[in-house]
């Protein structure tokens, strides 16, 4: 009778190391609660001085998205994060800044926020499109 240690070693040898693709990293990005939280952290100081009331709508929604994600609804939170990040990206692209304003600290934070929003759109879209929902919709299926 073979011992259990021998079986474990054989099982470990047959398991192959799989290589993670860019798609896998995007899905993990979309399923994480940290990107919307980080984006909200960057948007808040940009929209407080001078006060921009429309831009101040984004941080609470993105914080709520992180809460939904932590509550266990990763796929739904990924879709919300992608949608609101895309809206912020559209709104931020409309603002025009002089070249001297783009090279300062505020311009760097704005560029970082817009880059993070763009990655959130892609990662959240992948996370929402290929994520699994909790519970499902029994009313529509059966």
Describe the structure.
- Helices cover 73% and strands 0% of the residues.
- Helix 4 packs antiparallel against helix 5 (74-94).
- The chain starts with a helix and ends with a helix.
- It contains eight helices and no strands.
- The chain has helices spanning 4-14, 22-31, 34-48, 58-70, 74-94, 99-102, 105-130, 138-141.
- With 142 residues, it is mainly α.
Layout of helices and strands:
Layout: H1 4-14, H2 22-31, H3 34-48, H4 58-70, H5 74-94, H6 99-102, H7 105-130, H8 138-141
Helix content: over 70%
SS field, number of helical segments:
8
Main sheet record: none
Number of strands: 0
Order of helices and strands: HHHHHHHH
Shape: globular
- Class based on secondary structure composition and strand pairing: mainly alpha
Distance between the termini: 49 Å
| Mean pLDDT level | 84
Strand content: under 5%
Cα radius of gyration in angstroms? 21 Å
Which residues sit in consecutive blocks of at least 5 with pLDDT less than 50? Answer: 138-142
């Amino acid at each position: 009778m073979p011992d259990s240690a021998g079986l474990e070693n054989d099982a470990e040898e047959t398991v192959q190391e799989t290589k993670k693709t860019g798609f896998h990293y995007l899905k993990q990005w979309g399923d994480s609660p940290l990107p919307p939280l980080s984006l909200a952290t960057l948007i808040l100081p940009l929209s407080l001085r001078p006060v921009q009331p429309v831009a101040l709508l984004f941080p609470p929604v993105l914080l709520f998205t992180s809460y939904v994600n932590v509550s266990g609804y990763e796929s739904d939170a990924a879709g919300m994060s992608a949608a609101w990040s895309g809206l912020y990206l559209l709104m931020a692209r409309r603002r025009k800044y002089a070249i001297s304003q783009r090279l300062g600290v505020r311009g760097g934070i704005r560029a970082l926020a817009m880059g993070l929003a763009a990655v959130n759109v892609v990662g959240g879209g992948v996370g929402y499109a290929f994520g699994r929902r909790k519970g499902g919709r029994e009313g529509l299926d059966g």
